[in-house]
Amino acid sequence: MSQRFNWLLVIALVITFQANAQNTLHPTSSEYEYPTDPKVVEKLEQWRDQKFGILIHWGIYAVPGIVESWSINNEDWINRKDTTQSYEEYKKWYFGLSEKFNPQGFDPNQWAEAADKAGLKYVVFTTKHHDGFNMFDTQFTDYKISNGPFASNPKADVTKYVFDAFREKDMMIGAYFSKPDWHSQYYWWDYRATPDRNVNYDIRKHPWRWNQYVQFTHNQLNEITTNYGDIDILWLDGGWVRPKSTINDEVLSWGAPIPDFDQEINMPKVAEMVRENQEGILIVDRTVHGPFENYRTPEQGIPSEMSPDPWESCITLGGAWGFVPNDKFKPSRKVIHLLIEIVTKGGNLLLGVGPTADGLFLPEQVSRLEEIGKWLEINGAGIYGTRAIENFQDGKLYFTQGKAKEMYALMPLEEGEKLSETITWTLNQPKEGSKITILGENKSLKWKTENGKTVVSFPKNLQQKLTNSPAIVLTYISE
């Protein structure tokens, strides 16, 4: 089943070497194909119930505290600070960060505990970003966390311990994996220059080299889906690695060069292999429309419309995906408002949080997560396990529906905004005689429907009590 949705994105800017956002951000896919495998469908609906996940970028880029991978790309929009250093010198320095990455404070239990307190329900962890540095103990390259100064640490196979810590919190597990690998001689060959993000040789002239890269990629994906326990999501980034025939407007929006040949890694074979290893695993081949994009992943933005198809907005807590010194983190109120809008439009929120080079979340990150969790502890019924409805918004109110067909009306409140004496809406009207309550409160509210408008009244003590709340959630039975 294929449907087309042309979504407009409200793009939030990120700090990426003063770059235009279009160069790196994955926009919303304009097409979607619902899976046919019953096990995949079951897993997909389970994932849709979770609503709120965490995306953890962690790698050698945390050592200097710079944006992940992209600084070694030589496209025009990249601005490196030191103009006296040659590009080749910079790449050597960057790749050499593997010799300095020694996160002795690495504490995946701290991450999982903070995520659990935040009400997060699944994790996506960067097993390998575009720079090719592996955060798992792969046997197909030495460029990995378990081969540097951290090798003697009992937790050197970082991915194993991250996944184990989050499984102990009963979270779904996702493996982020970059299809391009800028450290591999089979992708960026030292024999030639590396002018952009693409493979730097003509695959048609060097088929052996590309076949070696494809096999290398398959070998690593086999390792991840074999050696690291139950995995629910394979999250594939680097959407320019794809068949040329699938190039679309989303890819063109990056403004990057398009090679005159396929960068094909044989996704049907990948899917067959990983689903033999992990039955029903979701595959998210970002922006490559078809059977291997099990849900869509707009980045740093929210679609303007509701969609019944599964999607996930990946948005950073701060200004960058990984750790950057002095990053500015969004207030918890802002994140809660994003979550409300995303969920009521049918999506999940994947919140990006980057640990320090020593392997810890900052106190400010932890406190933000705890504040979000306190709100969800009371109001989570209006978020988790719900589904979007066609009339998802009426003025300031957003609506979701639970599996028992109960309605939730979610009203975000700005900092310092007082809860008014009444609230009015016209859509999704309550059933005559039904009760309307605020989540976290026991007493029913007075309400009436006249001339097609529902008016709910709030007593003064409740107005005062909820003045500083990021949002309130009403629940009722609709007509």
Walk me through the structure.
With 479 residues, the protein is of the alpha/beta class. It folds into 2 domains: 38-76 and 87-382; 393-477, no CATH class. Helices cover 24% and strands 19% of the residues. It is built from 10 helices and 19 strands. The strands form 5 sheets. Strands 8-7-6-5-4-11-10 form a 7-stranded parallel sheet, sandwiched between helices. Strands 12-13-14-19-16 form a 5-stranded antiparallel sheet, with helices on one face. The protein has a 3-stranded antiparallel sheet with strand order 15-18-17, with no helix packed on it. Strand 6, helix 5 and strand 7 (233-237) form a beta-alpha-beta unit. The chain is globular and about 75 Å long. The chain starts with a strand and ends with a strand. The relative contact order is 0.14.
